[in-house]
Amino acid sequence: MGDALSLEGTVVHRAECTPVVNDNYMKLKKMQIKECTKCPRLSQQLERAITTVFKPVANHDFNIVYEKKKKSEGKMVRAERQVVLDMLFSAFEKHQYYNIKELVDITKQPVTYLKEILKEIGTYNNKGPHKSTWELKPEYRHYQTAEGT
Prior knowledge:
The chain contains six helices and two strands; from the N terminus they run αααααββα. It has a two-stranded antiparallel sheet with strand order 1-2. It has a domain at 77-140: Winged helix-like DNA-binding domain superfamily/Winged helix DNA-binding domain (Arc Repressor Mutant, subunit A). The chain has helices at residues 23-37, 61-73, 81-94, 100-107, 111-121, 143-148, and strands at residues 122-125, 133-136. By secondary structure, the protein is mainly alpha-helical. The termini are far apart.
């Protein structure tokens, strides 16, 4: 392919080019057509079965670890409402915005129960920079300072 030709520049006038029809050009076209019609996938009959190192695993390591963790923690049980409120208020003292997953991790409460409580004391942000997060309603924002004074 040492004799490949390339051109660079800007087009000023339109030009129509036609190749010189000779034996070399016809061989090139024939080779191009054969390449296009060639099937990309070929099936082969194997003489013996190929054994691979990979064998199916019934249960992967990360699934086993997850199951152990789930059993040790047990099922989420609803705690007393005031206990959950205290946990939520102490969490909101550290940060203003939390998504529901973070609050479930902090309180260890079921999502439906947590949302039920959050609807009373918090507002859910649908838009803006804090999308999909919860924050306390203005009347609850200074919970600890209002109780202490």
